[in-house]
Amino acid sequence: MRNVIENLSRQHRELVRAATRMFGWLDPSRLQGHAAEAHQCLSTLTGILRVHLSMEDRSFYPSLLGHRDEALREMARTFLDERADLERRYEGYRDAWPNAAAIAGAPERFADETRQILGMLWQRMHDEDDRFHPEIIARWRET
To answer: What is the distance between the alpha carbons of residues 78 and 5, in angstroms, rounded to a whole number?
Structure first.
């Protein structure tokens, strides 16, 4: 399990790098001339996020949900439910910005919505890295 968590944490660092690049495009006056670059950053972030979620779905959550420790299973269910809500929100955000023209047409809204969704992603990664993953490692060794 430690290796899986290390891979997930590495992916979190990749997501942070992609999100940091996104922040560089959140000046609405800059977006109108560079919406294609902003959309490319969004596509990169989405790709990394999809790989991350796929890894969680294939190996991480199934192991946790089948674990014999009830508290660990319950924590996993809670985090998975919260992730589903965030995933729906992200998909709605991504769908609202299907191309560079959409971004160029509403740069202030894109900047605001991007700041909001990136903040939610950052908080989720922070919760996983600082609270969830350490608890899994501690409980995995105990059982």
So the answer is: 18
**pLDDT by position in tens, the chain (length 143):** 889 999 999 999 999 999 999 988 899 998 888 999 999 999 999 999 999 999 999 989 999 999 999 999 999 999 999 999 999 999 999 999 999 999 999 999 999 999 999 999 999 999 999 999 999 999 887 65
Torsion of CA 71, 130, 52, 92, to 10 degrees: 90
One-letter identity of residue 104: A
Task: Report d(CA 106, CA 79) in Å as an integer.
Answer: 33
Domain spans in the chain, listed from the N-terminal domain onward: 2-142
Residue found under tokens 């060794």: 141
